[in-house]
Design goal:
This is Amidotransferase. By secondary structure, the protein is mostly helical. It contains two helices and no strands. The protein is elongated.
């Protein structure tokens, strides 16, 4: 797969997870679940950006 496509897919997945963390906050779910989703989402987004711009 082309690095541009895989980087964009990773960034989209990361944004999806960050949005899920925000949704968990609105629903009042436990803070640890929100933090885990936020960290995973930011990590996936950052790695997608790295793949997109480094290759």
């Amino acid at each position: 797969m082309d690095p541009t496509v895989s980087g964009l897919i990773l960034m989209t997945f990361g944004a999806f997870l960050v949005g899920g963390g925000y949704s968990f906050r609105k629903q009042g779910l436990p803070l640890i679940a929100q933090i885990v989703l936020l960290i995973l989402g930011l990590a996936a987004f950052a790695y997608g950006g790295y793949v997109l711009f480094a290759y």
